[in-house]
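Q: Could you predict the 3D structure of Imidazolonepropionase?
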Amino acid sequence: MNRLPGKAMTSSLSTLCAALLLCAGAAAAAPTLVRDVRVFDGERVHERRSVLFDGGVIVDADYRGAAPKDARVVDGLGRTLLPGLIDAHTHAYRFHELPVLFGVTTQVDMFSDIPTMTATKAAMRAGGNSARADLFSAGTLVTAPGGVGTQFGLAIPTLARAGDAQAFVDARIAEGSDFIKIVLVGARAHTLDLATAKAVIDAAHRRGKLAVVHVNTEQDARAVLEAGADGLTHLFTGTDIDAAGLARLAASRGAFVIPTFTVLESETGVHTDDLLADPAFAGLLDQDMQGLLKARYGAAPRPQRLAAPKALTAALHRAGVAVLAGTDAGNAGTQHGVSMHRELAALVEAGLSPQQALAAATSAPAKAFRLGLRGRIDKGYKADLLLVQGNPAVDIRATRRIVEVWKDGESATPLRDQQRQLVAQRAAAAANALALPPDGRISQFSGAGLASPFGAGWMPSTDSFTGGKSTVTLAPQAALPDGQVPLAVHATVAPGLPYAWAGIAFMPGAQPMQAANLSAATLLRFRVRGDGKQYQVIAMSQGVQAPRTSRFTAGAEWTEVTVPFSELKGLDPAAVTMLGFNAGPQAGEYRFEIADVRLLAQ
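A: Sure. Here are the predicted structure tokens for Imidazolonepropionase:
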């Protein structure tokens, strides 16, 4: 949930929101005619047409008469009207307000919480979802105990054996899953085996549901396609691949593929297309939202690792395989809505024409996921529409020059204006960096407790909220010669989780995990000694789920450790939520002492 700075601002913004939504509703009452506009209908370009829509539905995709009485007329000269974009791979946990603002009117969700999925579907059925993207979801993914998807702190069901596949699939369908998403990652210790994955695919097909699979190797991609998978939800990074052979296999099986270049670029540390350089985009994203987009999983750029997915995408397209645009939004290096515009450009860089890339984000995912009357501009289709300046069928970056978005026939302009105001107000509230102590010291340990000069302070940190069993005890020690009191950290890291940990955390915000602006500092410095084992400094900033990390060794003698923020790639110093010093993930007993922790300007 996004926080606003103070009750007074919350009240005034609530009043503003209500007024804007009333205006939006009033504007939607009349039909809309977009006149003399270039139309990309989901497959082809028509250079000059007029499109009439009313009541959330396209009435005429090639309207030739006078404007209906009371219709709102929108000038289309020099502009292109597109179907609302469909992001074929997202994780819709947060930022539900964003997709529509950037022209993404439908999300295909690959793993989300059931209450969000249920609530969105209810709003769609009631015709009350015009402010948010429609959602078609896998609900809970199919993964092994301890496998991918279990590390986020959500208690989810897992599948241990092939014999339970049908019951597992039936339970997901009962929850409301539109299709079945399977995780098969052979390089990991905790994953489904191929026999179980095939049993799930067969179980889904018996119920008339698509079965799509997350893979991370060429070998697994071939295996699941041969097992009958309907689609691959990711490609994978690498330098060498039998692109033509894998493309032929996918084509022979009638499968579709979602490359998700946006997240692959994050994995490889690549950041060549700065969406935030566009003020129109940056103005719609607050610090929290921008933090996730700025982050990268890869610490150092490795663009050569994108050679395999680029070659495979080109080969898939040549082989007639449906290539779909999906961002994997919700992960570091992505953000809902805005990342689709990078994904479209990446598809063109991989060999699709701009027009083919537009189809990959409109008609192709609508067909592949059986989404009904959407993804096209034609009579009777949903009036989910995007109007842009220029011609994206020639220059794909023209999708970024958004003039207007309509969701269910209602203009999103009031929502976009509202978001800009909210972002500006939040930026003003967070503009000033937190004043650090003159000596930068944030550890004020003593026999009386774990004091700090600001924030919620120091506290134990373990994997218990993700279901782990690790424990930690903290004990102040005798003062050092300079008067600093070290803190002994005794951690027991329990087995059973791939990301187990135990240690101590500093929360710089007024409440735990609330962001604080630490941009007055450029580095973290502390002293440590211990059992000779390796530990991790972890740092988290608002909007980024995965922590940034730096390793250190706690030797027998006191050692000073310096960690520049610049080494914690993707950390936003202006929105730090936590600094931690952890043992793990290997199970075992750990003991170290830490003292004199400082935040300093270099």
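Q: Anything worth pointing out?
A: The chain is about 25% helix and 25% strand.
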